[in-house]
Amino acid sequence: MQLVYDTAQKHGVPHTVAAELLAHSRPCIYLLEFDDLSSAHRETARPAARTGGLPSLPDDADWLDGMEPLVLTVDCVSPLHEVLPIELPMATCSSS
After folding, report:
1. What is d(CA 66, CA 60) in angstroms, rounded to the nearest whole number?
2. Cα–Cα distance list, 14 to 6, 18, 21, 89 (Å)
3. pLDDT in tens, 57-80
4. Does the predicted TM-score (pTM) go above 0.70?
5. Which class for 85: exposed (0-12), middle (13-18), buried (19 or more C-beta within 10 A)?
6. N or C terminus of the chain: which is more exposed, having fewer CB within 10 Å?
7. Helices (H), strands (E): how many in the chain?
8. What is the pLDDT of residues 31-58, one digit of tens each?
9. What is the C-alpha separation between 33 and 64, in angstroms, rounded?
10. CA distances to 24, 30, 42, 95 from 90, in Å
C-alpha cells in the first residue's frame, strides 16, 4: 500500500485519490511458466499452480471414477497470504 502512496506523491496525485484507488483494488495472481520468470524472480518464486495429475485431496477422499482429467490446480490463498497486509480466510481440512 505504501508503494501506491509514495508513487502517487511522486507524481503529484493527492493522497485521497490514492486512497480511493486502494479502496477499489483487489488482489490478483498472474500465472506464468517458471521459465518465463526473470532470474531474479526465480530465486523467490514458489509454485502457486500445477497442471495435470491428481488433485490434492484429504486422505480419506478419492478422485471420483469417470471424472474428467484434472487440468489445473491453483492455490489462490497461500501466495497472497505472505504479501498482503490483510487477513484472508484459510480453508481447513480435517480427517477423522
Report:
1. 18
2. 11, 7, 11, 33
3. 888 888 777 777 788 888 776 666
4. no
5. exposed
6. C
7. 4, 2
8. 788 889 888 888 888 777 888 887 878 8
9. 29
10. 23, 20, 26, 16
Task: Record the cell numbers describing residue 9, joined without a space.
Answer: 506523491
CB contact set of 60 (below 8 Å; sequence gap of 6+):
95
Length reported for the chain:
96
C-alpha grid cell, residue 32: 506464468
Instruction: End-to-end CA distance of the chain: give it in Å, rounded.
Output: 42
